[in-house]
Amino acid sequence: MIEIKNLCKQFEDRQVLKDISAVFENGKTNLIIGQSGSGKTVLMKNLVGLLDPTSGEVLYDGRDFVAMSKKEKIMLRREMGMIFQSAALFDSLTVLENVMFPLDMFSNMNLKERIKRARTCLDRVNLSEAESKYPGEISGGMQKRVAIARAIALNPKYLFCDEPNSGLDPKTSLVIDDLLRGITQEFNITTIINTHDMNSVMGIGDNILYIYEGRKEWQGHSKDIMDSDNQKLTDFIFASDLLKKMRKAVTGKQ
Questions:
Q1: Nearest-10 crossing angle of helices 140-151, 95-106
Q2: What letter does residue 206 receive in the DSSP assignment?
Q3: What is the pLDDT of residues 192-219, one digit of tens each?
């Protein structure tokens, strides 16, 4: 579990995060949503230590990440997996070598063990047949699946995903969503996803944090969104006329 308490982030005279408190739960897909410029990316960077909060706490199973020494933060980061928006694979490495990269860097496994672990992760994302290919030889959706395999190679307790469905068609996005939810539940990971994808919000949103202008505006499950009376949330989720009509048909609400 990851908990943030009274988190604030200020850049000179501009306050981006304003006293946010929230809990991200184990074994659930925790989604952070909000308009562009709302503070989602800044929040994610504070969670993983790319930025230091101006004030507040970031607790990993009770451990205060903000108060840790540099060495302690490095050790905790070994418990994290990260999936970047662009997949961020190494073009000069094969699919198998890309998945092995964190194992080569941070594990004490011998070569045979590292290869076995990487192949297990590729099998989990249904990409065993692509291990000898290079990133440029596979589709964007397959690249994202390789990124997922690489992110889970070290058996992380915490998984961070920055717009994992960016640039993907709706069908492939559903595949990625199903993989992330399945892996989260299977390994009881605390997964946090920044997303604009409303299919992801409604499909795998176990715990959704909606940020508006740097503040926590709403938190709940996707099934609670339809009945929400929070006008800012409904305006964001049901931005299109079609979605508004669907909501009205289901709930009777505008």
A1: 20
A2: S
A3: 999 988 888 889 999 999 999 999 999 9
Smallest CA-to-CA distance from 146 within 123, 167, 171, 168 is with 123
Q: Where are the beta strands (DSSP E) in 185-227?
A: 190-194, 207-212, 215-220
- Residues 209 and 30 sit within 8 Å (Cβ to Cβ): yes
Count of Cβ atoms closer than 10 Å to residue 254 Cβ: 9
Contact 57, 7 (CB under 8 A): yes
pLDDT > 50? residue 242: no
Say what percent of the chain tops pLDDT 70.
94
Q: How far apart are CA 219 and CA 198, in angstroms?
A: 15
What integer pLDDT is reported at residue 240 of this predicted model?
A: 46
- In our burial notation (b when 16+ CB lie closer than 10 A, e otherwise), range 205-231 reads bbbbbbbbebebbbbbebeebeebebe
Distances (CA, A) of 149 to 47, 102, 116, 143: 22, 11, 13, 10
- CA 252 to each of CA 223, 226, 248: distance values in angstroms, whole numbers, following the listed order: 16, 10, 4
Pair 132, 95: CB distance under 8 Å? yes
Task: Answer yes or no: is pLDDT of 140 > 60.
Answer: yes
Q: What is the mean pLDDT of residues 93-117?
A: 95
End-to-end alpha-carbon separation of the chain, Å?
36
- Say whether pTM exceeds 0.70: yes
